[in-house]
């Protein structure tokens, strides 16, 4: 039966709303025989999100470990290519396995793995650590075996390496309280374990109210119309590692596209990925921002001034001035901006 006009309009409205306003998108793939070489992303997905998909993406396994994988375009089709083989081998994928991908608009794909015969999730995919991808015959990760042999409990390994995934209903051993689901939520793509995440103020007390306010006027004195400031929050400097750029400033001074930006301080340079947020006109720094944070020992309540030194039609370059809420230790980098 032909679709009438009203139904057609409704369907188009639903499609437009989904692809332009939803925060995440999903697709699934059955692995073909030659899956190790590359994996094709569905054509509709590629077409609808072509303006926001990055050249380098992050694949996050159910257990929380991450891999950088290149997205390669061939005509109108996108493929996971460089880095994909390592991801597939680490998870011991088999032909006809079903993979569900969830894209979060932040250069990252969460991945869930299902066995084609049992139609259930592969339990082993929750126990893959990037530092040890070799599996034994039972599909267990060799690093997990070492934890058992050294006396570390499986409970600790699970809780340390398996953050709760948004939208996941999975729970490890719900009947026995020993392996309950972790309540820690982690934005994908920028950490592989708790040990690698920045933990502000673990060695001293958090800054006082006066210390929190101290860097703000220092940063304000450096502001110009070509710059903006950000007071660091927990999600900027640990776990999430995302930095939002104000929408009004971004619309005026940055080209409206995904791009790599250069961050400079003390004559050193870092590259971070800027992903445009089409709904608001602003954007967010994702991949690469975490390295800048760690290398410069940024903490919550520090204030950064980002001074744009490039033109709008050029790749963005920022000199970054860091004003700290607490005094630096001797071996931390200083906070002077680079000279232009």
Question: Could you explain how this protein is built, in words?
Answer:
The chain is an alpha+beta fold and 340 residues long. Helix content is 22%, strand content 24%. The chain contains 10 helices and 14 strands. It has helices at 5-21, 43-48, 84-90, 142-149, 154-161, 209-213, 215-220, 234-237, 247-253, 289-295; strands spanning 25-30, 39-41, 56-60, 66-74, 77-80, 98-103, 108-114, 227-231, 243-245, 259-265, 268-276, 283-285, 303-308, 317-323. The protein has a 7-stranded mixed beta sheet with strand order 1-6-7-3-4-5-2. Strand 13 (303-308) and strand 14 (317-323) form a beta hairpin. The longest helix is centred in the N-terminal third of the chain and has 17 residues, at 5-21. The model is unreliable at 131-203 (pLDDT under 50).
